[in-house]
Write a structure and sequence with these properties.
This protein has about 200 residues and is of the alpha+beta class. The protein is globular, with a radius of gyration of 19 Å.
């Protein structure tokens, strides 16, 4: 039985989630209405890459055995190839969930701006495909990880911890109010990686 939930959990019936635009004047052609999400541009790509490079933790969302979302705070860093790496315990529920279904999501927060509200700072939401990293790369990955986060040495010495690659398949960068950018895998690639 999944953690902390009754065994008879059925998916709730679908609700009415239509998001009708607020009336602001004469009816418009929907195709001509402003879109809330922009395409990526050089500035948004640079900001997304900066958030990825600076990440030392993230919120990971996985699907449990009944298909319900579950989140965990995890350690996260970029691998040498520019793909996010997580250091996860095989004992954790999120690791078991990734073994069953590699689809997951990450939320990476940037620093809050001068106003101090976490919602005013940049954040990057990623849809990822998870897979255990190649074990032959562990010594180099562990050395890089330890260099960036010396306090992680205790986890690196435990036999149940291993690295996972979290390959982005898409994402959304919220760069601030009214500045949301849809990101493709090419937008999220290391700057010197060919698209």
């Amino acid at each position: 039985m999944p953690l902390g939930r009754p065994s008879d959990r059925a998916a709730p019936p679908p609700g009415d989630c239509r998001m009708d635009p607020l009336p602001t004047g004469p009816p418009q052609d929907p195709a001509a209405a402003p879109q809330p999400h922009r395409s990526a541009d050089p500035a948004s790509r640079a900001l997304a890459w900066s958030l990825l490079q600076g990440a030392r933790h993230a919120t990971l969302a996985v699907l449990d055995e009944a298909g319900w979302p579950m989140t965990s705070r995890i350690g996260l860093q970029l691998g040498a190839d520019g793909v996010p790496l997580a250091l996860l315990s095989d004992l954790a529920l999120h690791s078991r969930a990734l073994c069953r279904d590699p689809r997951a999501a990450l939320l990476i927060d940037g620093p809050a701006n001068a106003r101090g509200s976490p919602l005013s700072g940049p954040r990057l939401s990623l849809q990822v495909r998870a897979a255990p990293a190649d074990p032959s790369l562990r010594p180099a990955q562990a050395a890089d990880w330890r260099r960036r986060d010396p306090k992680a040495a205790i986890y690196l010495g435990l036999s149940d911890f291993r690295f996972w690659r979290l390959e982005p398949v898409g994402g959304l960068l919220n760069a601030g109010f009214g500045r949301a950018h849809l990101m493709t895998p090419a937008d999220l690639a290391a700057p010197d990686t060919p698209a």
